[in-house]
Write a structure and sequence with these properties.
Shape: globular
Low-confidence stretches: none
CATH superfamily of the largest domain: HAD superfamily/HAD-like
Oligomer: single chain
CATH class of the largest domain: Alpha Beta
Order of helices and strands: EHHEHEEEHEEHHEHEHEEHEHEHEH
CATH architecture of the largest domain: 3-Layer(aba) Sandwich
Structural class: alpha/beta
Length: 290
């Protein structure tokens, strides 16, 4: 038995933030032939579950960049939260520097009402400007972030701390690359924390023990699955850890060159059903190897 691990944003989801019919059919095709499909994403479990239910699929779900693992029946297998002390310190630092940020728990995505409104206006201003191809992509990725399910808007960050829920992922956003780099360096030097990015406008902060790769390895061990015979498909920096764990890694056609450079092969873009193309090619090669 082997896994097919699939990222969501920029990978399984198209520009409309949906799973295309072609991708949905390819996933069912793989499942019917004994492959275990794993959705591996920075999104929260409840958000992923809603999208998968709409598409009629029931995969394993690695959520919040590896901080949570849910089985196909929805049972929580593993969770690795950020300590409460670190959460408070992170939010205070981000708040003082006027970052837009989102805080992921097992129940909601918390964000500040005023910061969300401001960031939305930033996106609209950017979209109305004369942009190059990469800037247009960044603006579209930032806007698609608002399509997630489960947002709870609060007035200030202490309102988030009052919830007393475990925090698995904190996403900080800015179109100022210097500002993002400062945040990356700040949190990457803290031993407990791990920092990755899923798009040019963000960094994502988790417990250092949480990563897509570590979660996939844990799930494979528990399910007695060979990672050497498994495939991972993705497009961003936060997919690198799972690329390193599998025998067959696939970069999306819309991924940057540095992501493509570390993968076994490259597939079509997310708007061209690249996931389906990769799945059919993988299953064909898998059958030939047998």
């Amino acid at each position: 038995m082997s896994f097919i691990a699939i990222d969501m944003d920029g990978t399984l989801l198209n520009g409309e933030n949906e799973i295309s019919e072609e991708n949905r059919m390819a996933i069912h095709y793989a499942m019917e032939r004994g492959f275990e499909v794993v959705i591996s994403t920075g999104r929260a479990y409840f958000d992923v579950q809603t999208i998968c239910k709409k598409a009629g699929i029931s995969p394993y779900i690695i959520g919040t960049n590896g901080a949570t693992i849910h089985l196909k029946d929805g049972k929580l297998l593993s969770s690795i939260p950020i300590s409460k002390e670190s959460v408070e310190s992170i939010l205070k630092w981000l708040d003082e520097r006027d970052f837009y940020y989102e805080v992921f728990t097992d129940k909601a995505i918390y964000t500040l009402k005023k910061r969300r409104k401001h960031f939305y206006h930033e996106i609209q201003h950017l979209k109305s400007a004369d942009l190059d191809k990469e800037q247009k992509k960044t603006a579209a990725e930032a806007e698609s972030q608002f399509d997630q399910f489960g947002y709870v808007l609060v007035e200030d960050y202490p309102d988030i701390l009052k919830q007393e829920e475990e925090v698995f992922n904190i996403v900080a956003c800015s179109f100022d690359q210097k500002k993002l780099a400062e945040a990356w360096n700040r949190f990457d030097m803290i031993g407990e924390l791990g920092v990755v990015s899923s798009a040019d406008h963000n960094i994502e902060i988790t417990n250092k023990s949480a990563s897509k790769g570590n979660a996939l390895e844990k799930l494979a061990f528990l399910m007695n699955v060979s990672l050497e015979k498994s495939m991972a498909i993705g497009d961003s920096n936060n997919d690198l850890s799972m690329f390193r764990k599998v025998g067959y890694s696939v970069a999306m056609g819309n991924a940057k060159d540095d992501i493509k450079a570390v993968c076994t092969t490259t597939t079509l873009k997310n708007d061209d059903d690249g996931v389906a193309h990769a799945i059919y090619q993988f299953i064909e090669n898998y059958a030939l190897q047998k």
